[in-house]
Amino acid sequence: MPALAKTYDVKAILERLGIEKVNYGAFDGEWFGNGSKSASYSPIDGELLGEVIQANAEDYERVVKNAAKAFEMWRMYPAPRRGEIVRQIGEELRKYKDDLGALVTLEMGKIYAEGKGEVQEMIDIADFAVGLSRQLYGLTMHSERPLHRMYEQWHPMGIIGIISAFNFPVAVWAWNAMLAAVCGDSMIWKPSHKTPLCAVACTKIVQRVFERNNLPPAIMSLVIGRGADIGDRMINDKRIPLISATGSTKMGITIGEAVGRRLGRTILELGGNNAIIVSDKADLDMALRAILFGSVGTAGQRCTSTRRIIAHADIYDQLLNDLKEAYKSVPIGDPMEDGTLMGPLVDNEAVKTMMEAVESIKKEGGEIVCGGEILTGDAYKSGNYVTPCIAKVENSYKIVQNETFAPILYFIKYNTLDEAIALHNDVPQGLSSSIFTTNMLESETFLSAKGSDCGIANVNIGTSGAEIGGAFGGEKETGGGRESGSDSWRAYMRRQTNTMNWSTELPLAQGIQFGVKK
Ligand code: UN1
């Protein structure tokens, strides 16, 4: 069937990235693994991309020991020189942008443009971290005591545990890894078991940079393995002072509890339920394009995906109709091919979850406006392709209050801005949000203290596609963590307050006299 012939060479892509038929899943400077084998199949057509021999409990122990050893030297390596290593990693990522972007697409199914976009995020955060390596600033304070000096400094923290999700299999690791590296930490990455080859490829890229510079590659270690073997060990491990995790709220609660019990720290980036308020004063054409990217992009599998449209009654019907037309013409198919805008969902399980959600919508009284079906036929033989769905609902529905990781968009009507903001905030999650309006009073209200309660709030742009320069994360059940830009780096270091007495007396603070009789 020539129409289905691939225009790209999977074998060549994998080869250039150093992916073998069977790969080791643990890395601490050397590749090894003694756990069970796990296969990675492409959601595009079910093709076997490669296998991984996962890490077992002993392998994990070995990785932690070597990451701890690497930390001891790395923390004493000057921060700007750590930045130089990260600069070289950024250069290397530029060389592999196309291949690594393709592997992201092959392994999790987002379209190639987005796969490459993800690698661009890695490059951007590497550049950001290089600059940061000379700006890990602390404050100086004025002491209340004469001839005393006070300041604070930021020290490397230790081994950072990075737990990443399938939907951003390389970028989110890089947000953490590039910052942690300039902060002087070593790290252990546990990627999603759905995207192990992406993690192997990234680790091979950084391995070469460390080796070239005669530095221990264990600074960026890897353990691929199931939660019960590896994840549980990591979150309960006192040698890991910080766990940075991306995933579902359910998973975040487990991690938060386990790490909290040992008084460790977490950066949690969990579920979103992101809405766009579309005002009657919006540029509807712009709103339409933003909604389409936000809801259909990555097949609705971003934590920032647009899940709810809160539309003003006066434009509700028009927007819904226009969007319905746009949804119908979204090219769905092989995400590697030019022109495709929506690829498959990550696996059959995700398709099942989406279909169950569609049923729940109907059961609760919602109306399916379009989509929500499984595509069949030769081009869709992996069974992972669906049509994106729009549904008319009430915000209070149980299904609407939950995050479904699939392209389902809920339509909700409002009359006043206060009502819109109340609906907007009336969900358990608080990641990303946006308003489309050309009225400044409306946009400022949305951004004010009584406006959006999310970690990210935008005006006239969608909910997804954040730049790396800002702090990324959200409130409420999204977990409260912040990654990536702004001053997120502080979470990867420990703060120390220093007071230096350069007098010949010993005055106490708060004016306390505590004389010793001679
Ligand atoms: C995620 O889905 O976990 O803002 C991260 C965005 C991307 C990152 C999403 N830059 O959509």
What does the model show?
- With 518 residues, the protein is an alpha/beta fold.
- The chain is built from 15 helices and 24 strands.
- The strands form six sheets. It has a seven-stranded mixed sheet, with helices on both faces.
- It is globular.
- It starts with 9 loop residues before the first helix and ends in a 17-residue tail after the last strand.
- The mean pLDDT is 97.
- The structure holds 2-aminohexanedioic acid.
- 2-aminohexanedioic acid binds next to loops.
Low-confidence blocks of residues: none
Please identify, by name, the CATH architecture of the largest domain.
3-Layer(aba) Sandwich
Helix amount: 25-40%
Terminal CA distance reads 100 Å
Global outline: globular
Cofactors and ligands: 2-aminohexanedioic acid
Task: Find the CATH topology of the largest domain.
Answer: Aldehyde Dehydrogenase, Chain A, domain 1
Main attributes of the structure:
37% helix, globular, 518 residues, 2 domains, seven-stranded mixed beta sheet, Aldehyde Dehydrogenase, Chain A, domain 2, binds 2-aminohexanedioic acid, Aldehyde Dehydrogenase, Chain A, domain 1, 15 helices, single chain, 20% strand, alpha/beta, 24 strands
What is the compact description of this entry?
With 518 residues, the chain is an alpha/beta fold.
Secondary structure blueprint with pairings:
Blueprint: H1 10-16, E1 22-24, E2 26-27, E3 31-32, E4 37-41, E5 48-53, H2 57-74, H3 79-95, H4 97-108, H5 112-132, E6 140-141, E7 148-156, E8 159-163, H6 171-182, E9 186-190, H7 196-212, E10 220-223, H8 227-235, E11 242-246, H9 249-261, E12 265-269, E13 274-278, H10 284-296, E14 306-312, H11 313-328, H12 348-363, E15 367-370, E16 389-392, H13 398-401, E17 408-414, H14 417-425, E18 429-430, E19 432-436, H15 440-447, E20 456-459, E21 471-472, E22 475-476, E23 483-484, E24 493-501
Parallel strand pairs: 1-5, 8-9, 8-11, 9-10, 11-12, 13-14, 13-19, 14-17, 16-17, 19-20
Antiparallel strand pairs: 2-3, 2-10, 4-5, 6-7, 7-24, 15-16, 18-22, 21-23
